[in-house]
Amino acid sequence: MTVPFFVYGTLRPGGHNHDLFLRGRTESEEPGRMRGAVLYEGPGYPYAVEEPGGVVRGELVTALPEAYGQLLGALDRLEEYVPGDPRNLYERVAREVTRADGTAVRAWVYVAAPAVAARLRAGGTLVEGGDWHVRR
Fold it and tell me: Which InterPro entries does this chain map to (predicted)?
């Protein structure tokens, strides 16, 4: 499935991983929001945790067609995501993301894996407003 990516932390413009992973590989980057999730602080990066009623703000990134496969692999490695691995910190899932103009699109997003999500819900620090860039 070739869909855009929804990024909400260090991959956003201005984040330290943006230039390392996205520069030269994207066709477009635009503001977006994902409903049904909240953000928690992580050790230098955030975690999106699926939670009804929440909203996460970030960017919807469309890869250049010729860079899509390479970018998907690079982001999976960055997030240490291996399909089906119970040690994953993140899971890559397809979710609906709303553009600034109100239209919705399916996008890949890395959300906290179940064990990580449970730990964060029990004692994590919630990012009020769901925007990691304006958390302080």
Answer: AIG2-like_dom (IPR009288), GGCT-like (IPR013024), GGCT-like_sf (IPR036568)
